[in-house]
Each structure stands twice: as C-alpha cells, then as structure tokens.
Design goal:
By secondary structure, the protein is mostly helical. Helix content is 52%, strand content 8%. The strands form three sheets. It has a three-stranded antiparallel β-sheet, covered by helices on one side. A three-stranded antiparallel β-sheet has the order 4-5-8. A two-stranded antiparallel sheet has the order 6-7.
Length: 430
Amino acid sequence: MASIKKRPNGKWRARYRDADKHEHSRHFDRKADAQRWLDEVTTSIVTGQYVHPKAGDITFYEYAETWRAIASHRTSTADLVRRHFTNHVYPAIGQKRLKNITPSDIRSLDKTLGEKLAPATVVVIHRYVSAVLASAVRDRKIAVSPTVTVTAPKPGKKKVVPLSTEVVFSLRDVVPDRYRALVVTTAGTGLRQGEVFGLTLDRVDLMRRTMTVDRQLVSVSGAPPAFGELKTEASEREVPLPQTVVDAIAAHLATYPTGPDGLIFTNSEGGALRRSGFNEIWTAARRTVLAAFAWLNASPEDRVGSVAKALGTSTAKAGALVVQARAAGLVPPDDASPTLIESARAALGDLPRGAMVFHDLRHYYASLLIRRGASVKVVQARLGHKSAAETLDTYSHLWPDDDDRTRDAVDSVLGAVLADSLRTAHPVAA
C-alpha cells in the first residue's frame, strides 16, 4: 500500500508498507518527486530488488566477518583473506556502514594499497572486497555494489625470465645441506612450494621414477602446518622423475630421516617446514648468490664495499655474505688471479633479472620443458595448470615463434641439400 499526502507545512509525504507491514516514508518539496520515489520503490519490490532502508546499516567489518565464516575457502585461502582484511581493509572501511560505502571509497582503498603493496596483491584484495559487497547485494543489504563502477587494478604482469642453470646450482650450493635435495627436486619437477613441502615417502616411487601430487602442506597463522587441498583440481597429477631428482632424494633420505607422516623434507628439528621459516633460509641464500655476483664484478680495491652497496647493507654483513659465498665455492680467495676470477664468473653465469624467489624454480622447470620441445599440453599437465590458456599466458614468450619454426623447417631440409651440393662442386683437396 502506498500513498502521497500534502502536509500542513507544504511538504509532500510519500509512504508505503513493505512485505513485513512496516511503514516507510519520505518528504519531498514536489509531488512529482514523491511519486517518482514511490514508483522506484514499487518497481524494486515487483522485480525482487527491494532493499530495506535499514538493511545496509551493518558495518563492512560485521558483514565481512559473517561472509568469511561461511565462505567455502581452502584453509590457506581463508587465512590469506583474514590477514588481508585485518591488515589492509578493515582499517580503511571496516567501520563504514555498507549503505554508505561509495565507489570513491573503493578507489581510495585501491590507491592506498597500491602505494605499499605489490600490484598483484592489490588485485587479490580488490577481488575479495568485491566478493563481500556482491554477497551483500544478494542478501539485500544494499541495492548495488559500489565496486560495479570501479575498474579493478591491473597487476602489471611481467614476463617470466627463467633462472639460468648456473644460478640454480649456485642456490643449491649455498642453502644448508638438508635443503639441497629440496632445491633439486623443485627445479626438476616444477612443484609449488606447498606441494614439495608436503611431499611424503609414500607419494614417491624411486624405482618407477614417478611422483604423485595430490595434496600440499598448508601453513596457517597460529596452527601447525597441515595437509590441505591443492590449488585446483587440475593440480592433482603424476610427475615423472628425472634421474637427477631420484639420486638427490635417495641421497637425502640416506642422511636425513623422514619427518611426521613420512615428510621427505623437514626443518632442522625434523618437523614440518613452514613457509615463513624456510623463506628466511631462501632469502639468505639469494643474498649470498647476489653477493657473489657483486664481488666477482667489482674492482679489486673494494670488493666488499661493492657488495655492501649492491645489497644495501653494512660492510660487516657484506663481508659475512662473501665468506658464505666462498664456503660454497662461488668466489675464489681475495688474492685469486684474474684467470681464476674470470673462471668463477663464468661458472656463476648471468645475473638474474628477477628477484630469485623460490617460485622461480618452478619457472625454471617449465623453461627446460619448453626448451626441449614440450608441447603446451605437456607443460600444462606437468605444472598442474587449470587450462592451456594459463600456461600460455605465463610462458608463451618462451616458445619459439612461427618465424623461428619457418627458418628451422627450411634450413633442416634445404640447408643439408645445399651443403652437400657445395661439397660436391668444390671437393676438398686431399
């Protein structure tokens, strides 16, 4: 039931009753405006888009916490969302009522996050905030999500630049001995970090040289690492093991006993690996390799000073990194000859253009397959990608293009024929 009535003060009062028999009213200066408002309300009721005027009084924090509690996320994803919301979203819009959140608020949030976080992280946070507000629309808390008119940030995707084999071996050589087989296994199978951390003896067949990937080790704040679901259904796969990996795992098991549940790779206390703990070890290894690059390419007068400048650290810490690099065989003694230094520089290869994160070992594995002529479908299957499109989106630039294939196809046939005819026409004198 709806009506419009002129009040003694000259205002027009429009009112209606909702499905729960609650009356709602607004006052307007003009009757036409009152009628327009009633028409809009009536239309929203008829089309099923009606939102109670007080439904959006709940804060973003209150609604988002309810949303998180019932969301069907993997354990690791749920922990990621919790941390992002707690650290970045709630301080900005947590106490705002849903109905008062505007597109400008979302743009401001994206801009603020972009000033301190990686572009890819901003995209993830924007996506989850959008999911919460879209759920609020479905629950009839708000009529329209303020993110609808806001363009999601673009992550600024960078081309993958694979590590060189020399750098991979250097990283293996500088990590503590108990983690060297872990580096080789990851570089030789392309497993994700959680997958290789969760690798157990019953999932590896060294005789058949195969590995079953059907779970990963998940680290959640405030809880011990535990087995969890893989990233996607396509991540479940069987990976062939090269002999290099078989030998590395066999040698590792001969020295280090398996951990809880048969975990092959464990921490220094024999327990399950945590991302945070291992990342400290990996960061130290990465800095040691970078120190070796800086030392080998510095002038003899101030090698340690050059290392300190390159890594943004003190001379004392730079000296300690050089000692570690020397212990791993990456740099020769201070009084080494130019020939020996040049040999060490050649053994280390080219300076990586990326950050040398642990995930780069997975990229390295993919680059090896591509370099050896593996098809898109094979690389997709080995990496556990959801689709070939995902594989191409990440690695398409590593495959030879059509021009290269054309040249190789013609040269492989005509090149051999022409070379043979030239030898016949111009025989080499005995």
